[in-house]
Amino acid sequence: MGNIIIFAILGWFFYWIFKSYSKYSAYSKESFKNFSISKESLQRSELGLFIALVAKVAKADGKVDALEAELIGIMFDDISAIFPEPQKTKDILKEIFNEEKDKKENLHSIAQTLSHAIKRDRAKQQQFMGFLIQLAFVDGELSKSEEEILSQIAEALEFDPNIYHAMFDKFEQMMKNITPKANISDAYKLLGVSEGDDMDTIKKAYRKLVREFHPDIIKSQGKNEAYMQEATAKTQEINQAYEMIKERRK
After folding, report:
1. Which ranges of the chain does DSSP label H, i.e. alpha helix?
2. What is the pLDDT of residues 211-227, one digit of tens each?
């Protein structure tokens, strides 16, 4: 409950920011119905460029942890679903991610290319930057390398530095205030499982809940930041409960 209150406060803050942004053209099946699927075309697309940046943030601290991998996998599903040939699109997006996650030298050029593509759309800038910050914080820790990469991306995107630092500081403060479940029975209850269930059953329940409540970058279009914040808060609670159960069963 404490996490939800924290994110509600954050939601108000981001809603205030969002009110100053004009509406933008949403990503939808209709907008991509004539899109020719190829690796080259996806790499040049806004969402392909975004995936490349996601890869660099996810691997910034040297590893892609389990929750990050889970959320990124779901993100591939969310994005590929709006393109023709979703499975082909998903496979290519994974390929782009895997190629880009260990490259550091092209960070600025990719972010700058994306910046040019969405320069007149501050809402998209807000959405992409917010998702990258959330991804960096989602494992409960923020490394120096993650912070540096986020800062470089924000600069290349020509993102308002005052808004960036306000967003970053809010997430940093939020992470200090989040505490794991104190009671193991509450953790089981949150996942909808019992202490008698095996870990395979518990893992399936966990993954189902993460998929249900994950921050969805496609569905968040046109909504205020509270949508993504509430989804992230729930995802954090679910992950904390799962980690507590795993630790107890070692």
Report:
1. 2-18, 39-44, 46-58, 66-80, 86-100, 107-117, 122-137, 144-156, 161-177, 184-191, 199-213, 225-248
2. 988 877 787 766 666 66
